[in-house]
Amino acid sequence: MTAFFEGIQYLFVNILFAPLDLLRRFELVSWFGANTINWIFMIICSCAIVYWIKQLRIFDDAGTENQDTTAHSFLK
User: Fold this and answer.
1) In 3-state terms, what secondary structure has residue 6?
2) C-beta separation of 26 from 15 below 8 A
3) Please, are residues 26 and 33 in contact by the beta-carbon 8 Å criterion?
4) pLDDT digits (tens, 9 = 90+) for 22-62
């Protein structure tokens, strides 16, 4: 049974976390380079938020959004 858990440890420590170790070493060289993944995620989330707000405005201007408090049966 210990071999099973040691196999899981090897998988996570030596294989799956290897890219994160590389980023940790790269941080000493370039902070911006090491945080590139974070910057990409922030850009994607910002674009998604802008798109979502635009869609909300489209439905709000068209008047198709149901803002009645009894829209759901559990609110009655």
Assistant:
1) helix
2) no
3) yes
4) 888 888 888 888 888 899 999 999 999 999 999 999 988 88
Task: Answer whether 47's CB lies under 8 Å from 41's CB.
Answer: no
CA 45, 49, 52 angle in degrees (round to 5)?
A: 135
Q: Residues 6 or more apart from 46 whose CB is under 8 A from it?
A: none
Place of tokens 């198709």: 64
Question: DSSP state, 1?
Answer: -
Alpha carbon 46 to chain centroid distance?
11
Residue that has been written with the tokens 């938020």 in this structure: 49
Kindly state the tokens that stand for 26.
């790269």
pLDDT digits (tens, 9 = 90+) for 33-43: 888 889 999 99
